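Ticket 4471: requesting a sanity check on a complex prediction with aspartic acid. Repro inputs:
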Amino acid sequence: MKKVVKFGGSSLADAKQFKKVADIIRADKDRKFVVPSAPGKRFDGDTKVTDMLIALYEKAAKGEDIHEDMLEVKKRYDEIIEGLELKNFSLETEFFEIETNLKKAPNLDYAASRGEYLNGRIMAEYLDYEFVDPKDTIFFNEEGHLNSYKTEKTMKERLTKAGNAVIPGFYGMGKDGKIKTFSRGGSDVTGSIVAGALQADVYENWTDVSGFLVADPRIIKNPVGIKTITYRELRELSYMGASVLHEDAIFPVRSAGIPINIKNTNAPEDEGTWIVESTGQKPEYTITGIAGKKGFCAVLVTKSLMNSEIGFGRKVLQAFEESNISFEHMPSGIDTMTVVVHEDEFLDKEQQVVSTIHRLAQPDAVEIDTDLALIAVVGRGMRSTRGTAGRIFSALSHARVNVRMIDQGSSELNIIIGVENKDFETAVKAIYDIFVETQVK
Ligand code: ASP
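Returned structure tokens:
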């Protein structure tokens, strides 16, 4: 068995966390390939090393002195090195080199990536694993996208030779020969690339929560966890704001048929959440998860006999396209179609869009409805269960929530409900209660 294990910033924030991580790795000899993030927050209000490095770059770019700030970063690593009692190991030379490089030619991606690089060096030393620098194994093309072919081939060769290795997350080599990072949270992507290249049996992603929760814990107190979720369900929930994993981390493992297991460094015995392509496992509840967001706007376009006018929908959507606005949903009625957009993208351009709709599609009326929140109730179990929609709407009506919009995709994987922003939390609670709290298992 081959396991690729990625540890997030909070799992590696200090020496105590590092020790937990090492125990986890040593507990299973299949955990051969380790992808660390940079040290994260040790307590509420603390600063992540990546953020310290970005601030440091900004100073360097303005020509300000960075020596003191560099020492602050170094202190974080020195404390880890001391706490782990790594006697003959130091990062003096590395810090000298990083400071010199940043003074000479400040580069944002280079600066940001050093958090992972330095953590990887410590981790490799502590575990006695080989250090494999992603600057030699992860490549971007001219457009700044991952060069998957070259990356997979090189990574596979390099890691097969190494046997056991630590590969820092978050960065690789740009086409211009300079270090390039993924977007924030990108160590997840590195882990996925490594797992995909090696055809690993599982990609374990270790963080500080025991996997995905059925609902947002800021709205529901102690929500239950999700045991198994499919990639498609995850996509629906992440789109609606549930976030544990970087979006780009799905593709490399999904295309190789590798499951992801989200695990908790602080509670390693918890099973966590399995993210899989497909599963015969029945979900525990009819629904897999609930997620939602506020701040949407519905543009209601009415025209009598719209249903028989060929090309009407295209013309309406063209108006949004011309203003460079992407639409989120589009429920339609007999003589109406509604285009749901993000309020912050739309409001500045609303008059432009409305006049373009009039010009192109000659509707009877265009109305704009603001302060809309969308809630997605997602679950592969809905397809085979009768009455799901009925239960949702009766729960909402009992909670006195007025439903403003409904959209059920034909995949029957989710039902999207639009409510007023002010009813958002009440609605999520009502749906959670009806499916989870009062569910007879
Ligand atoms: N350290 C980087 C960040 O803070 C990448 C990561 O943690 O995944 O965004």
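Notes from triage: The longest strand covers residues 289-302. Leaving this open until the requester confirms.
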